[in-house]
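Email to the structure team, subject: Thioesterase II family protein model.

Hi all, the expression group asked for a predicted structure before they design truncation constructs. Nothing fancy, just the tokens so they can compare against earlier work. One-line instruction: predict Thioesterase II family protein, return tokens.
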Amino acid sequence: MTVTDGSGDLWLRRFHPAPKAPARLVCFPHAGGSATFYFPVSAALQSDCDVTALQYPGRQDRRSEPNVDDIGVLADRIAPVVAPLFDRPVVFFGHSMGAVIAFEVARRLEEQGHTPAVLFASGRRAPSTRRVENVHQRDDEGIVAEMKAMSGTDTQVLGDEELLRMVLPAIRSDYRAIETYGPVDATVKCPITALVGDADPKTTVPEADEWRSHTTAAFDIRTFQGGHFYLSSRAAEVIALMREALRGAVAVG
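Reply from the structure team: attached below.
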């Protein structure tokens, strides 16, 4: 079941609505990803919290909308949509590009007095680190090759030429957004937990550890066996961490 927020805003997805849950989990997809990536997380945690996933413009039912190829613009647009969710403790989880968007949204919300209980930054090096990347400048075949190498896109999509051509503009836009972002030295007040695969070609463990310089609160780092999408094979462990953080947030109040 897909549920948007009460105003019909298409930014938010609730697959298993839990309006009376004591806490909320807000999930931010990776480059080329959509809210449905977090359907399994929602199914697993529906008895613990209200799981909400972001749906960026340019994909699935928002395919007719213009893509947004700037992280700051995305964060500016997302922050006011997420702010009303802070009527109870909120945990942010972002994977890859989603980790950076979650960080930038947290920065904006903290200026309004809304601080996440925890920010999980998964599969992404810290904002202050820098690599020269140009996937967004490649031709379509080059972008598809990158998607296959990262194993982050449904194989049915990669094998369906018509569907693939439909989603490539959004994927290119996402890569442009994340590859032109930073470096940024800002901090947030909320605790950060960095999650990283030990064989991730996009993020080394030292690069993930640099997230510690972006919080004035507690920091933790967890390393998992696997590549960029380690969380697909280590889902049970990642979900256990989320559940622990959510229960801790409720206990603190």
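The longest helix spans residues 161-179. Residues 12-131+183-252 form a domain with the Rossmann fold fold (CATH 3.40.50.1820). Ping us if the truncation boundaries need rechecking.
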